[in-house]
Specification:
By secondary structure, this protein is of the alpha+beta class. The chain has 2 domains: 91 residues; 68 residues, no CATH class. It contains 3 helices and 4 strands. Strands 3-2-1-4 form a 4-stranded antiparallel β-sheet, with no helix packed on it. A hairpin with a 5-residue loop joins strand 2 and strand 3. Helix 2 packs antiparallel against helix 3. The protein is rod-shaped.
Length: 198
């Protein structure tokens, strides 16, 4: 943990605007790029919060908008024959129920393997009246919201780090070119001042 703190303090000292005359233009540009990345990452936290909040609200709406109905199975669901079949415990089978307008509806809904025709089962209908699996629960809603927010932060952080790495690479190339020119100038002056070495 101490090493991380030391690294952070080193970065702060490197990028802070202190008016040092030895700082090159490339150093100032890199400091501005680092500040821009930090500000954009901070803004991405707000975006992640909005993403997570939207997913959470959608999940709550899905929890409240559907309904359970009692449906009658119209055809026998297959009986599991092998141990591999028992892994898939549900299969979509035709069922019928009466909707709120007193009309009979027939659709495929998930029922357990081996369910006999004529059996009454509970079926979850979504907001559009389509039979689904099970009612979305609060744990799933929270998990989706957290995953969405975490994903947004991760993507934003990765993109910003990649952009900063490209900027720094470009600046490093410029620094190396400037250093080469400076070394050649120093070597030329040294050679001119000491003609015996030529």
């Amino acid at each position: 943990m101490r090493d991380v703190g030391r690294w952070v303090m080193c970065r702060v000292r490197l990028y802070r605007p202190d008016g040092n005359p030895l700082r090159r233009r490339t150093d100032r540009v890199e400091a501005l790029a680092a500040l821009a990345c930090v500000l954009m990452f901070t803004a991405s936290l707000a975006l992640a919060f909005l993403t997570g909040n939207a997913l959470y609200r959608d999940g709550l709406a899905a929890e409240r908008s559907g309904q359970w109905v009692a449906a009658r199975v119209l055809r026998d669901a297959p009986v599991p024959r092998t141990s591999i079949d028992t892994v898939r415990t549900e299969l979509r089978t035709p069922v019928s129920w009466v909707d709120t307008h007193n009309r009979q509806v027939i659709a495929d809904a998930p029922v357990f393997l081996g369910t006999k025709a004529g059996t009454t089962v509970r079926v979850w209908l979504d907001a559009k009246g389509r039979p689904g699996g099970t009612q979305p629960d609060r744990a799933m809603t929270v998990a989706r919201a957290l995953a969405g927010a975490t994903g947004a932060v991760t993507v934003a952080g990765g993109l910003l780090l990649g952009c900063f790495a490209l900027v720094r690479r470009s600046l490093d190339r410029r620094r190396y070119a400037e250093w080469d020119v400076a070394w050649l100038a120093v070597a030329g002056k040294t050679r001119g001042a000491n003609p015996e070495t030529s």
